[in-house]
Specification:
The protein is of the alpha+beta class and about 160 residues long. It has 5 helices and 11 strands. It has one domain. Helix content is about 20%, strand content about 30%.
Length: about 160
């Protein structure tokens, strides 16, 4: 990521790079590490001996999360927040709804279960407007780009207050 930012002339003061799992609160977790360039499934796991992925050099390490509230406090108002947190969205978004309402214009969320797909629609109770939503694990979904199969789902929400 840092190489990409540098290659595109993005000044250091224009981004915040944090090498830590993000969650709703700061806590110690077990986290998969390794093969990040081939496999984007690095995730928080329930225990150190949980198997996740078939990558020979991957490992599970204990890490300290950073809370989404702390991240948002450090970056200030945002035009857009993109989240792909491998199931942790169920913990993150309820923990920061008030701060999102005050400081983020749009969220684009990768989803990882049908339960999470449904849970995120609670954002509409806070005044957010759904721009689009495609549930995870669906096939041959009609989109403006044609038929698409979704392994992960995707939702986009707009904050009309900002």
């Amino acid at each position: 990521m840092l190489e990409h930012l540098a290659d595109n002339g993005i000044p250091d003061k224009k981004y915040l790079a944090i090498q830590s799992p993000v969650s709703g609160a700061e806590r110690d977790v077990f986290f998969t590490c390794g093969h990040a360039t081939e496999w984007y499934g690095q995730t928080i796991l329930p225990s150190a001996d949980t198997s996740f992925g078939e990558w020979p050099d991957s490992s599970v390490k204990q890490k300290r999360t950073i809370s989404i509230v702390r991240v948002l406090d450090q970056v200030g108002p945002l035009d857009s927040l993109h989240s792909d947190v491998q199931g942790e969205e169920e913990v993150i978004f309820p923990a920061c709804t008030d701060l999102l309402n005050e400081s983020v214009k749009r969220v684009h969320i990768g989803t990882h279960s049908r339960v999470i797909d449904a849970m995120l629609f609670k954002l509409s109770k806070h005044g957010w407007q759904n721009h689009f939503a495609f549930p995870c694990q669906t096939e041959r979904v009609v989109t403006s780009y044609g038929l698409v199969d979704f392994q992960d789902g995707v939702q986009s929400w707009i904050n009309p207050r900002l």
